Amino acid sequence: MPSEQDNTALAAIIVAIIAFFVTTGQLLQQIFGTAVGYRHCQASVIGEWATLTRRKWRWSEFRFETKYTTPNIRLIEVEDCARLTKVRLITGDLESRRRTHVTSISNPDDDKSGDQVNPDDDESGDQVGWLALLDQLHLFQENYRMKGITPNITIDRPMLEMNCPAITLRERSWDLIPPDIIRPVATSTVGDIIALAHRLGMGWSDLRPGDGIMRAEGGGRSIVSTAVRGFGVLLQFNYEPAKYDVSNYDGTVPSTPADKLGFGIIESGIGFGDIEIESTNETEAAKEVMHLLNIDRAVISKYGEYMEQSGNSLGFSDILGMWAPFMTLPGSSVVRVMKVLRDVDRGPTCSREGFVAFYLRLKKSKKEGACSEQMLYLLSTYRKLKEKWDSGWQLPMHGGRGFAASPEFLSEIRKLWSEVADRFREKHSSTSPFLFFHVLQAHRTQAVEYPVLAKAALNDTAQREKIEEGLGSSMDLEMAAGMHLYIDRIPLVVSFMKKKGIHDERLVIDTWWTLIFRAMLWHRGHDIMEGKTRGYGGIPVSPSFWGSKLPVYIA
Ligand SMILES: *[C@@H]1O[C@H](CO)[C@@H](O)[C@H](O)[C@H]1NC(C)=O
Ligand SMILES: *[C@@H]1O[C@H](CO)[C@@H](O)[C@H](O)[C@H]1NC(C)=O
Ligand SMILES: *[C@@H]1O[C@H](CO)[C@@H](O)[C@H](O)[C@H]1NC(C)=O
Question: pTM for the complete prediction?
Fold first, then answer.
């Protein structure tokens, strides 16, 4: 039988054990409590990214440090992706969603029951904006995938031209986060965020990243910035899902040259450098491009006056098709590109009337026996397209052509676009690579006079009849007159080239027809966005922001 002493000792042990657990518990709580910020990196705030949050013990400070992982969001060429092993592409499929930790996202509009929502339950309100941004990028990529664009490196080589949103994981310490910031931030760069915003259908209403000011909106989405002292530009991404349906949205071509248009940069499809447009004044912008094309100063200033008076840029506007590379991706039906200059979607090389006049004049030349082999080739190519796709191939994209977005039609146009020039170059391999450039320059110098001449020509009954030929009803005579004038002025191009020291008339004429036909093909493979230039009703974005590595944080 245990004595009273034993009982007391037992009680003491039990008390001691309880005290031990209580103090240990308190100690542990205190130690874990040293992991500052840990509770800000939970699933309610950063969704599945919370699984990457960890505590790291620091002996020297006898405390835990919170390590959280967030994405660095970028836009990369799929081609580079093979090199960059740590990059995870955002492609919109389930595997990619899993790898980027956004398999599901709570939709803030899902519970619109109108009931009082218990603030403790409504966790979506706590969520960081970059999760929604990743989700939106996935949705857009999914949409591209349905339209034939996959960044599939293994099987679909051509898609390497695609420029795809991607992330890399970045682990950071909560210790270094400023006290103003209460949620883990993702990172990106000014250049990539501007391009991604364009992709998501946003235009910039204010853009001064140097001063910490960036503001974009469009399509139910918005980005606003706040400057955080000692940290940098902090962006807030928001969207209203109810207002906007991604499935109805075509998006712009997801490739580098197409993204560059949003920054006022036109890459060259004829082997020259980029054209960069700084000015936000339409007249000045056109003059800038003409300066880059080395066009005579007197011609430029005269044309500037014409633009100011008439309010249009006809005569110059169809420069894009002559200069730019083919942007629509192979196998895809996404054809929209941003408008880089005023009226680039109008001109003799884009309109149906211009096509009709072009065909008519080529046929006439053939009858007169004035066609070279290259011209005959262009004529037969035109004829084949007309037979296969009916006269519909003459209509611009937004003219509502039934097969506008048919990948078959687009891939044929794309193939011809390169073939036309390649074939020509092969035949004349001895000629200067500057030939195309000089002929383009010569043509542009003549072409800027066409709107004025066209008006005069249309006043003249005999000339008007000639212009109306073959057009049928509903027509834009100025466009047809433009193409006729382009062709009538070939002798001026020839003499211009003679002054440059190129005396081979035949060569110059062939180059000219090839250049024009290629521009026409270009316009049938692209649909230039309507409305304001350079982006969704926003302000024109300066080329200097392209590729800008200035970091931004996304809350
Ligand atoms: C890429 O192609 C492979 C092989 O056909 C296929 O299994 C895979 O799902 C494709 N990936 C994507 C992202 O489309
Ligand atoms: C654009 O520039 C032209 C000169 O090229 C000038 O006459 C015109 O007033 C400017 N327009 C605006 C809106 O500033
Ligand atoms: C066209 O003709 C009308 C009258 O017939 C005249 O007023 C006008 O100035 C002419 N326009 C041009 C560009 O010659």
Answer: 0.87
